Amino acid sequence: MLTSLSIKNYALIDTMQVDFNNGFSIITGETGAGKSILLGGLSLILGKRADLSSLKDASEKCIIEAVFDVSNYNLKALFEAEDFDYDAITIIRREILPSGKSRAFVNDSPVNLASLQILGERLIDIHSQHQTMQLTSNDFQFQVIDALANNEDTLQEYKLELKAYKKLQKQLDELLVFKAEAIKEHDYNSFLLNELVEAKLIEGELETLEEEYETLNNIEGVKENLAEAHQLLEDEQIGVISSLTSLKNVFQKLAGYSSKYNGLFERANSSLIEIDDLFGEVNDYQEGLEADPNRLEVVDAKLKMLHSLMQKHVSTTISELIIIRDQLEAKVSVTENLDDTIQQKEKEIASQKAALNKIAKSIHEKRVAIIPQLKSQLEAILSSLGMPNAQFKIEASISNEYYVNGKDILDFLFSANKGGNFNELKKAASGGELSRIMLAIKSVLAKYIQLPTMMFDEIDTGVSGEISNKMGDIMLEMSKCMQVFSITHLPQIAAKGHSHFKVYKEDVGNQTQTNLIKLNHDERIVEIAQMLGGKEMSSSAIAHAKELLN
User: Fold this and answer.
1) How far from the centroid of its chain's Cα atoms is residue 108's Cα?
2) What are residue 16's DSSP bridge partners?
3) Percentage with pLDDT > 90 across the chain
4) Max Cα distance, the chain (Å)
5) Per residue in 183-199, pLDDT tens?
6) Residue 104: Cβ within 10 Å count
7) Are the beta carbons of 349 and 172 closer than 8 angstroms?
8) Sign of the CA dihedral with 311 first, then 317, 319, and 320 last
9) What distance, in Å, lies between the first and last C-alpha atoms of the chain?
10) Which end of the chain is more exposed for a tag (fewer CB within 10 A), N or C?
């Protein structure tokens, strides 16, 4: 509920601070006194866009602050979703700076207007002639029926299942598109894959083959170099082994004279062992080295093939070719198994549709069951509001389409006159009739769900005293379970409020200002008497006002 409202430097308001109570509150005032200014200020709190024309003094900023008790509104999930700081006593503030920039805060944390609008819709419902057009919306009509049918949890379950169904359907559509494209590429990818598979790629193979090719292609030079190395190592006169053996013997003799020469002997001996091993390897290479033209041809062919594949696939290593091969293998495999994948996805969709249809059927059955009760209640209320022949024809038929709130198509038809044809609300009801229908719907909804603070803006325009009296009774009844405001010109309604506020203009210096005050009992008598008989109050008007209040 709205507990207080503070407005500074807005339109004709210099400074205004007012506290509100629960129950039924009345707001009255002469035409042009500033009731629309009050609603405009509230609209800014609810997220409406603002401009510099809203500033009373263009050099000062405008501040509008409203305090709400949201403890009974179950809004913690909404606060969390919008990243608001939750507090049972929530403060919303709008500021319009002289620069034209607008800022919004929820519990002192800055928020954007889109998020503020989402919260605002859950806090205050301003009912005006314009808002009655919401009645003609299929979405709103479904919301009314679902509130009475207690479909909230079932609809939430349906939405989750619908999301899953749409995800599966999207995956299937993507598979079908992929299949159409893949078929075109399949033969080419298969050809490329076969080339790479036949190449029998091995990590590091290119370097090994290139080394082998160099050896086989230069066999004579290798032989000559190995023979020369063999001679340098083994020759009796100049061979390294012979010379090193003599050197070792010399160091051995020296070691016999003194232990300090042992190191020289050991190093020479160690070198001789290493040279002997080297000589053995040279012998092995010589014995194993043979010219092999056939192998050279095979190696040359394999190298040319590998270089050709690397050039074709713009790669520099065998590792990159292996990655490309694996990717092609995956593409070809997916294409070849695509029909099985599509068939499996179609089975998943069929299963999901069955679950979705089951929930949609439950929603439909609940709606169909509650419609007669809604129809009966609306017609009874409208009869008391001067529309005795008002009739509704409400039908929900299940379709083959999946909508965001089920599979139903709703016909919400109305006839205001006996024997008249049923038609859509926007065609069958006048503006005044729509206002009364909306009042009837809101009064029914108040019995089933927690509605936000309701503000009826001159809903009684153009109705008689008897009907306005009944309107007041309906709003008073609604106020037992919610906060209700009524901006009215009719004394019959004004007298029913638990609290009564008056909007008025006054001249302060050379400026006109709008203000809002709460009336005490005696002031209410005067206000209602003036509503009955004008500024010049008669004793009968005062007596009538007292009678209405009592």
Assistant:
1) 24
2) 7
3) 40
4) 153
5) 777 677 878 888 888 88
6) 22
7) yes
8) negative
9) 27
10) C
Mode of pairing for the β-strands spanning 62-69 and 24-28: unpaired
Q: Tell me the residue type at 362.
A: S
Amino acid residing at 88: A
Distance CA 82, CA 114 (A): 10
Q: Say if strands 109-111 and 102-106 run parallel, antiparallel, or are unpaired.
A: antiparallel
DSSP 94-106: EEE-TTS-EEEEE
The yes-or-no verdict on residue 130 having pLDDT over 60 is no
Task: Summarize pLDDT for 106-128 with one digit per residue, the tens.
Answer: 999 999 999 999 999 889 988 86
What DSSP element (H or E) covers 338?
helix 338-384
What are 411's two structure tokens? Answer: 């016909």
Residues listed for the chain: 550
User: How far apart, in whole angstroms, are the C-alpha atoms of residue 208 and residue 457?
Assistant: 90
Q: Which amino acid is at 220?
A: E
What are the start-end ranges of the E strands in 315-363?
none
Distance CA 239, CA 229 (A): 10
Query: H helices then E strands: how many in the chain?
Result: 18, 15
Q: Are 415 and 428 in contact (CB under 8 A)?
A: yes
| pLDDT tens-digit series, residues 135-188 | 778 888 998 999 999 999 999 999 999 999 999 999 999 988 888 777 777 677
pLDDT digits 0-9 by tens, 350-382:
999 999 999 999 999 999 999 999 999 999 999
Tokens of residue 24, six digits: 């039924």
d(CA 7, CA 15): 6
pLDDT single digits (tens) 393-417: 999 999 999 999 999 999 999 998 8
Pairing type for strands 499-508 and 484-487 reads: unpaired
Rounded distance between C-alpha atoms, residue 178 and residue 184, angstroms? 10
In one-letter notation, the amino acid at residue 522 is: D
- Exposed, middle or buried by CB within 10 Å (0-12, 13-18, 19+), for 47? buried
> How far is 407 from 397, CA to CA, in rounded Å?
8
Query: Across-strand partners of 503?
Result: 516
Q: How far apart are CA 543 and CA 540, in angstroms?
A: 5
* CA 160, 165, 170, 174 torsion-angle sign: positive
Contact 458, 489 (CB under 8 A): yes
Locate tokens 């503006």: which residue? 431
Provide, rounded to the nearest whole percent, the portion of the chain with pLDDT above 70.
96
